[in-house]
């Protein structure tokens, strides 16, 4: 990517390392243009049981913390820490104290035998946190090939509001580097000036640094970083990488 929007198609050079492409030879030109699928499924937690003293042997482990007794009568020798451990109160004695502060008073170390403590509030809070965690989708994974690099870059671009489509990126990558992330142009005016075009979308180092997107490596040969920086540059100059159909 020249500093003043001028490219030359790089000559073919040996690939410095083995790359994982779909198929061999020209097969890389026919990667499927399909939408990204994000893995992740929410797991529905069982509802909190209102009042239970024991659990049936077949009860799911996820119920254990949520289904503790709603109240507990303090006996001699008890401490909040001991009670919290015995009844698996999420958040420990602090959570138990917060749930019963109006009953216990200002000193959590002074609990009298016969005092009724509520365990339900702490148990419900634990169940709610467990449900929130289980509902979070799994992080997406990407293949270590051109298809995966483009998809990962598109996700980064979406987070930063950078326009561009799979087809627009793929089309320009194939023209500029034939899908080789180690491609370098050593013969044009940029190369003569000491700033050769590099990577999948043939970006010169000054342009890469100026349009580098946080969250990607500061390495112009990194496939995702190269694509994302080039698309950021294309968005600023042409509105989108989709509008680029030749040397840019």
Structure overview:
It is built from nine helices and two strands; from the N terminus they run H-E-H-H-E-H-H-H-H-H-H. The chain has 248 residues and is mostly helical. Helix 5 crosses helix 9 (223-238) and helix 8 (205-211) crosses helix 9.
Summarize the topology.
Elements: H1 63-66, E1 71-73, H2 80-86, H3 92-104, E2 116-118, H4 120-135, H5 146-159, H6 166-176, H7 189-192, H8 205-211, H9 223-238
Antiparallel strand pairs: 1-2
Low-confidence stretches: 4-60, 62-68
Oligomeric state of the chains in view: single chain
Give the tally of β-strands.
2
What would the principal axes of the Cα set say about the shape?
rod-shaped
Mean pLDDT: 77
What is the H-and-E element order?
HEHHEHHHHHH
Distance between the termini: 6 Å
Outline of the structure:
The chain has 248 residues and is an all-alpha fold. It has nine helices and two strands; from the N terminus they run αβααβαααααα.
Defining traits:
single chain; 248 residues; mainly alpha; two-stranded antiparallel ribbon; 9 helices; 2 strands; rod-shaped
